[in-house]
Amino acid sequence: MKNNKTSFVKKWIQRIVKLVIAAIVAYVILCTTLYFDQRNLLYHPSTVDYSSCANFKPEEHVTFGDVRLYTNTFVANNTRQILVYFYGNGESGCESPMWRDIANSDNMDYLIYEYPSYDNGTRETTRENVLSDIDTLAQHLANRSVIIIGRSLGNGPATYLAAKMNPQKIILISPYDRLSSVVDALYIPGFLLKDNFEPIEYLKSYNGTVIVFAGENDAQINYHISQRLNATKFILVTNAGHNDIVDKAYGQILSEIRN
Fold first, then answer.
1. Distance of alpha carbon 219 from its chain centroid, rounded?
2. Fold adopted by 47-258
3. What residue ranges do the domains of the chain occupy?
4. How far is the C-alpha of 252 from the C-alpha of 81, rounded, in Å?
5. Do the Cβ atoms of 206 and 166 come closer than 8 Å?
6. Could you read off the pLDDT of 97-112 as tens digits, one per residue?
7. pTM (two decimals)
8. What is the pLDDT of residue 73?
9. Which of 14, 132, 154, 248 meets the CB 3.0–4.6 Å disulfide criterion with 150?
């Protein structure tokens, strides 16, 4: 009887060990796949052609070398304040005319940055390419008054530009402290991330007001991650998720832009 019990226990131990090994192997395969394919998973370029985007007039398509923008500020040579918007990974510049309309209604200029591979861009979207574009953008915006708005992925370049220009205030929607924190929350090692934008580091060089909007029910970027930025003003949007936060906080966002 004792031998039977011992044999039974050994079999269960062997099964558990096999399951653990199988789980480890599956996890390693998953992490390896994510590592090599991560940019395809992180960035979702739209197929709209930049040059033919109908949401903006031809003269609103402005380029500086490889940097592509939707803007009116350089065409008119205006000295008005500029609303600068950086969108999330599932959007595109062509799909962001709402921010132009907000700027127009408040007698501001507007500038919407287009990621390198979005809207049929020919360059790869990487952290290095994006931050290089922002360096170029900062030079062209020197001595201009700006309000910078970032959403989701766009909070990386938004905070990087803020550190370069030091505007009076920035508005961050669904932000992260480090992009690796979002990956860590999925139980995937953040150190595997190639394009680790780090707003919490960029903001160390910024002295203005940081206004954060975070969704209470955001399943992509938990609001606890957003809280790590130690914003000047943190607004938790009740019952808002990642994709509907702008709709649910629209009035509050307008108020912060105008104040």
1. 15
2. Rossmann fold (3.40.50)
3. 1-42, 47-258
4. 20
5. yes
6. 999 999 999 999 999 9
7. 0.88
8. 84
9. 154
